[in-house]
Write a structure and sequence with these properties.
The chain has 459 residues and is of the alpha/beta class. The chain folds into three domains: 85 residues, Udp-n-acetylmuramoylalanyl-d-glutamate--2,6- Diaminopimelate Ligase, Chain: A, domain 1 (3-Layer(aba) Sandwich), CATH 3.40.1390.10; 209 residues, UDP-N-acetylmuramoyl-L-alanine:D-glutamate ligase (3-Layer(aba) Sandwich); 135 residues, Mur ligase, C-terminal domain (Protein-Tyrosine Phosphatase, Chain A, Alpha-Beta Complex), CATH 3.90.190.20. It is 33% helix and 21% strand. The protein is built from 16 helices and 21 strands. The strands form four sheets. Strands 8-9-7-10-11-12-13-14-15 form a nine-stranded mixed sheet, with helices on both faces. Strands 16-17-21-18-19-20 form a six-stranded mixed sheet, with helices on both faces. A four-stranded parallel sheet has the order 3-4-5-6. The longest helix has 16 residues. The chain is globular, with a radius of gyration of 24 Å. The model has no long low-confidence stretch (mean pLDDT 94).
């Protein structure tokens, strides 16, 4: 992590007060949580809607923070403790991260996309860890605040950083990629998430492709080669090195065979047809994410033979295709971290194809940020449910009712239930369980459908 004297910090960011008495004090690491500001960290406060981090600056320093930033439009900065007064604390944090990134002798992989960013990040970190010391984005630290904090947490001996880049609007990926300067950039796919802000899949494709703006010299773009929106735009770009993954044989890497297993997938790829890979992650769509990670790892010198070990030891971020033991001997798949029409359909298909279960139940909630056609998207998701493979569908939320409406033609009225109360949903679902069912639970993060998973989990 970053380690600097206050004098060195003052040479990186513009500081508006005299810090001569504290110039030799060393800060090590950065935090935005005053409760974690210990062991010489730099505490960065922000003005929020409900509270102001500046109120906790003195407390942070007293409990062990080495120093703190202070935004100059906030009155009454303390004079007797090491406080660096700056124009804007967020801008100063970002500037500090950019300077630290430029100091590090490190390779960076940047990952964006509408779906699968975090899963691909986890897979790639596992593959690269076979040869390198790797750090990756933790949790959802993938935006204009999280990415600088991730960069500033990188150890000086880290060899490869795998950085996730999220967005909600135009220009955000451009900022993140220029901050991270990736040597390899990955676009997992173009979906429907963020239609509310960007208006069209074409605009989403343009926003995701901003990731190439920060590519290092001779950097490589890896992208979903079945996506026409990406193909059209990349063909117009000058001198950009690319590799593709997908289902079509025109891609650099594609799956030759995929076998769905109760605990993951077994597959082969054209680039190493003699090797059978086991991926302990559910869903054929995750084989696609694995191939994106494999291409990026190969760019970094990991052999396809070595990747066997890296894939079979992947550990995903919580609430992403997470197995949970349920009541009455049921098995739950908790995929409640996020949702879009593309990923929701993939979860439905997974449930339908999962071997080893006589009865299968879907619990699906609202998908957010889909814009003016949100009701139609939900209805179309419901239409994909196969009543011959799924026994019951439970939906949650206002928009979930449209999923239910779309599914009734296949499941019938008697096997579809809609709720706006999680307790009522859980009670009804519990009443239809006979034991041993598979229950797949999925919704957007804001719906907090993991509360249903927790209620159904065996204690």
């Amino acid at each position: 992590m970053i380690r600097k004297t206050i004098e060195q910090l003052s040479n990186i960011i513009k500081v508006e007060n005299d810090l001569t008495p504290f110039k030799d004090r060393v800060i090590e690491g950065v935090t935005i949580d005053s409760r974690k500001a210990v062991n010489g960290q730099l505490f960065v406060p922000f003005k929020g809607e409900n509270t102001d981090g500046h109120f906790y600056v003195r407390q942070a320093i007293e409990q062990g923070a080495g120093a703190a930033l202070w935004q100059k439009d906030v009155p009454n900065p303390p004079q007797d403790v090491p406080v660096l007064i700056v124009e804007d604390t967020l801008a100063a944090l970002q500037q500090l991260a950019k300077a630290y990134r430029e100091e590090l002798s490190i390779k960076v992989v940047g990952i964006t996309g509408s779906n699968g960013k975090t899963t691909t990040k986890d897979m790639l970190a596992s593959l690269l860890s076979l040869k390198y010391k790797v750090q990756k984005t933790e949790g959802n630290y993938n935006n204009h605040l999280g990415l600088p904090l991730t960069i500033l947490s990188l150890s000086t001996d880290t060899e490869v950083a795998v950085l996730e880049m999220g967005m909600s609007g135009k220009g955000e990926i451009d900022f993140l990629t220029k901050l991270a300067s990736p040597d390899v950039a990955v676009i997992t796919n173009i979906g429907e998430a963020h239609l509310q802000d960007l208006g069209s899949r074409e605009a989403i494709a343009d926003a995701k492709l901003e990731i190439v703006n920060g590519l290092s010299e001779n950097g490589r773009l890896i992208y979903h080669g079945d996506e026409e929106l990406l193909i059209e735009r990349i063909e117009e770009m000058d001198e950009i090195q690319t590799k593709t993954f997908g289902t079509a044989e025109s891609n650099d890497i594609y799956a030759l065979e995929v076998e769905t297993l109760p605990n993951g997938s077994r597959f082969t790829v054209n680039m190493a047809p003699h090797i059978k890979y086991f991926l302990p992650v559910l869903g054929r769509h995750n084989v696609m994410n694995a191939m994106a990670a494999m291409l990026a790892a190969h760019e970094m010198g990991v052999s396809f033979h070595e990747m066997q070990e890296g894939l079979q030891t992947v550990e995903l971020t919580k609430m992403r295709m997470e197995w949970v033991e349920g009541i009455k001997g049921t098995k739950l798949i908790n995929d409640t971290y996020n949702a879009s029409p593309t990923s929701m359909k993939a979860a439905i298909k997974l449930a339908e194809q999962m071997p080893g279960f006589e009865r299968k139940i879907l619990v699906l909630g609202d998908m957010l940020e889909l814009g003016m056609d949100e009701e139609l998207f939900h209805y179309q998701v419901g239409q994909t449910v196969d009543g011959a493979c799924i026994d019951y569908l439970f939906t949650f939320g206002r928009l979930g009712q449209f999923i239910a409406g779309g599914a009734k033609s296949s499941l019938g009225e008697e096997r579809v239930f809609s709720f706006t109360d999680k307790k009522e949903l859980t009670e009804k679902l519990s009443s239809v369980l006979t034991g041993g069912e598979l229950i797949v639970v999925k919704a957007s993060r804001g719906i907090k459908l993991e509360e249903v998973v927790n209620a159904l989990a065996s204690k």
